[in-house]
């Protein structure tokens, strides 16, 4: 592993352990086993390195969430059961990797104060909506209708964000896939 890769790995570790604001150049360099000057050489600044590490973590989180979203292919499983099981898997991943989720919240907050991050965040959200809709509709991402991206993908991402924030904020009150499905059924009655 070269210095650039070591620095990126070190920054990821520091972000997950300390968060953005508490991670110093010295922390990253020590964790990576390289000189502090290497950060400037390879990334220009601590912030640029940390942003690249943040997006790397988000890509990983997207992969983890995407695997949890893939419906169960067990014979006799109806779509509602598969969706409930998907939520159970997703919630288990969130509980197992809470720091990955918290880093995504940190990035969202930073992008609101640093407009130069918004284009990357916007594109990441667009890809997330599209990929989520494709998984839920069981079609290749290139074949997802834009309407599904704007509706199904958006609502599923909103549900994931909100439910996972509640799960991480109140670990003593575990949420299940059955809870999510029951809540959606109740909402469907209201919206008719």
From TrEMBL:
SUPFAM superfamilies: Homeodomain-like, Tetracyclin repressor-like, C-terminal domain
Ranges where the HTH tetR-type domain occurs: 1-61
InterPro entries from the UniProt entry: Homeodomain-like_sf (IPR009057), HTH-type_TetR-like_transc_reg (IPR050109), HTH_TetR (IPR001647), Tet_transcr_reg_TetR-rel_C_sf (IPR036271), TetR_C_31 (IPR041583)
DNA-binding span(s): 24-43
Entry's Gene Ontology molecular function annotations: DNA-binding transcription factor activity; transcription cis-regulatory region binding
GTP-binding is among the record's keywords: no
The keyword DNA-binding is annotated on this UniProt entry: yes
Ranges that cross the membrane: none
Name by which UniProt lists this protein: Transcriptional regulator, TetR family
Taxon lineage: Bacteria, Bacillati, Actinomycetota, Actinomycetes, Micromonosporales
């Amino acid at each position: 592993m070269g210095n650039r890769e070591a620095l990126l790995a070190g920054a990821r570790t520091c972000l997950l352990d300390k968060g953005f604001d508490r991670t110093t150049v010295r922390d990253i360099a020590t964790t990576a086993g390289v000189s502090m000057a290497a950060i400037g050489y390879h990334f220009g600044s601590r912030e640029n390195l940390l942003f690249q590490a943040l997006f790397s973590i988000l890509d990983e989180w997207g992969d983890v969430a995407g695997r949890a979203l893939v419906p169960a292919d067990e014979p006799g499983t109806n779509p509602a059961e598969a969706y409930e099981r998907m939520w159970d898997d997703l919630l288990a991943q969130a509980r197992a990797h809470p720091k990955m989720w918290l880093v995504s919240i940190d990035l969202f907050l930073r992008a609101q104060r640093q407009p130069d991050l918004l284009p990357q965040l916007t594109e990441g959200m667009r890809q997330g909506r599209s990929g989520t809709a494709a998984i839920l509709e069981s079609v290749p991402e290139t074949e997802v209708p834009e309407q599904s991206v704007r509706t199904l993908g958006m609502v599923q991402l909103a549900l994931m964000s909100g439910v996972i924030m509640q799960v991480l904020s109140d670990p003593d009150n575990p949420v299940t896939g059955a809870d999510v499905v029951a809540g959606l059924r109740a909402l469907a009655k209201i919206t008719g």
